[in-house]
Amino acid sequence: MGTPEFAVPSLRALVTAGYNVVGVITATDKFGGRGKGKLIESPIKRYAVSQNIHVLQPANLKNTDFIEKLTSLKADLQVVVAFRMLPEVVWNMPEMGTLNLHGSLLPKYRGAAPINWAIINGDTETGVTTFLLKHEIDTGDILLQHKMPILHDDTAGDVHDRMMVLGAKTILDTVRGLENHTITSTAQDNALTSKAPKIFHETCAIDFNQPVEVVYNFVRGLSPYPAAWMQMDGKSHKVLTAKISSDNGRPGQILTDNKNTLTIACAQGALQITRLQQEGKRRMSVVDFLNGYHIVSKEVGS
User: Over the stretch 175-212, which tens digit does the pLDDT of each residue have?
Assistant: First the structure.
């Protein structure tokens, strides 16, 4: 059960290892592209079809017809990677249960955005966890965990891509362990719990009154999506990549030569922006941006 590209390596790992994947459950096809006129299949569906794996695309996971079709597959185990919440009638169906892959070292960062929050909080390590589903989100018993570093210049996109590969290995290791009875589940220590709530556009505004390291982590943790943003010359600009600068100024002050550099002063130090996107425009380097745009504002928010 999965939808985005993140789920594909995990399915591929199981198929390549020779497991009998009796079905793939994914999101319904959506219209997209220019003019919303093209019907787009999920990445996991495209891979499943290429492997002649049976695909189900229920709009409602409690639908009687879907439940009957899922039951008829007689799966011993269900594997969930980047899918939506499942009703109990679904996750409690297989004899071996349903395992889920989560992008953190549970119980840290329970929630929808574990990669983003780990980077925003300045963590230097994260990982993946497989666990058995139960009623409360991300609280099931842990099966296996693998760690990975977060480098100082990593964006959420960088960590996502490496975690996608590590996640596939962890899924395969977990399934093999369950098959061979070499893995036992362990209850999560709720005292160590932290949250990773869903991120919304309005909470992605950059606060340059904070120390530059905090601002830098905020930008990295939201890049490339949904992206941190600032107001400049009355327009919204997404900040995609940046680095820490030794320049000084009032927090929010814009320091630029209008040719090669664009730096915003923070409470301690400054953030030198290297890649950004003005609303309604494409993503570009700061040099390309300044080549066609003259900044008038003296500070952000104006």
Answer: 999 999 999 999 999 999 999 999 999 999 999 999 99
| C-alpha gyration radius of the chain | 22
CA contacts within 13 A on the Cβ side of 224: 10
- Are 103 and 42 contained in the same domain? yes
Query: How much is the pTM?
Result: 0.95
| 234-253: burial string, b at 16+ Cβ within 10 Å, e else | eeebbbbbbeebebebebbb
Same domain? 118 vs 245: no
Same domain, 115 and 33: yes
Binning pLDDT at 50, 70 and 90, where does residue 302 land? Answer: low
Q: Is the bond preceding 197 in cis, omega lying within 30 degrees of 0?
A: no
CA distance 68 to 106: 33
Contact of 250 with 269, CB cutoff 8 Å = no
